[in-house]
Amino acid sequence: MKKGDKLLLGIVVFLSLFGLLMIYDASSVRAFIDYGDKYHFLRDQTVWVVLGLITLTFFSIFDYHKLYYFALPLLIVALVSLCMVFIPGIGAGAKGANRWIDLQFVRIQPAEFVKLTLAIYLAAWFSNKEKSRFLAFCLLMGTVLILVLLEPDLGTASIILAQAGVVYFLSGGQLKHFLISLPVIGLIWVLLIKIEPYRATRLMNFMNLNKSLDNIDYHIKQILIALGSGGIYGLGIGNSRQKYGYLPESMTDAIFPIIAEEIGFIGANILILLFIIIVWRGFVIALKAKDAFGRLLAAGIISFLGMQIIINLGAMTALFPLTGVPLPFISYGGSALLIDMASVGILLNISKNTTK
């Protein structure tokens, strides 16, 4: 890592370790009630962080140019794994969603794998000059998005769509294609919200935020209470009240309100600043990449990481409707952390080969 982006590496390592602290903090009560062991989730996540750092190290050393030749096989594996979540005995579900493959000793979430493999495949495809590829691009994205939406996972589908759009645009996509696509995508997204009652309910709750707390969704209410309770300086690490069973998903998607409650407005903004720096460094690496494949790969990676950050923080500050998107490097979960760490490893690898 002598020539890699040390600032990016340092922030990612810090956030991962900080995430361990906050996962223990946010989960200790639930872990003690469910398992009689307040360290249960901390031990699980520690294993994933170690594996993630190993993965990051590997991809920071492995020449990213070789990923070009693995692009198609990786995409095929990703598509097959998306289909496997629907196979009885292999796929695993929770709360009405089929998003995991059960390997008995661990569960993996294929949609997380798709984000990275799609970045690799699109970078390999679009790094070569080719005419009339818009329809083929739409066909590929339609296939991927349908499989993700069937799980259902609208949040991840939105991230994948935004990521693909950025890579297509940077590869020289024509403006008219975006002008044609945007209204169509907007209409489809509205229909997807309307046909699922829980999505429509979330949207209605979001639209009614200007009313009193008594009239809004319980989840949003607890998020706002957590954010407000933290004040300027926070209640102090370990002093969250919302972690005592009030805030749902407090160690996964909704971990940011717990953090904001404990470290306050100032601390939460410092955390957001660190995420902004990660996105900035990612795009700097993309701009300085020597070859088209490296440039598009870095852009694809930082696009999906950036969209994850925006969607999670937006939902957890009541700027967007609620979605099931974890906060990178901090939220509890193995699949997302491994993919995010592998992605950062690739960015570091690209940064070692950038122009001065």
Q: How would you portray this structure in words?
A:
It is a single chain. The protein is mainly alpha-helical and 356 residues long. The chain has one domain. The chain contains twelve helices and three strands; from the N terminus they run H-H-H-E-E-E-H-H-H-H-H-H-H-H-H. Helix 1 runs antiparallel to helix 10 and helix 3 (67-84) packs antiparallel against helix 4 (110-126). The longest helix is centred in the C-terminal third of the chain and has 34 residues, at 255-288. It is globular. The model has no long low-confidence stretch (mean pLDDT 88).
- The H-and-E topology, N to C, reads as HHHEEEHHHHHHHHH
Strand order of the largest sheet: 1-2-3
Straight-line distance between termini: 16 Å
What is the rounded Rg?
20 Å
- Give the rounded overall mean pLDDT: 88
Total helical segments: 12
Largest sheet: 3 strands, antiparallel
Tally of strands: 3
Basic shape: globular
Low-confidence stretches: none
The number of distinct structural domains comes to 1
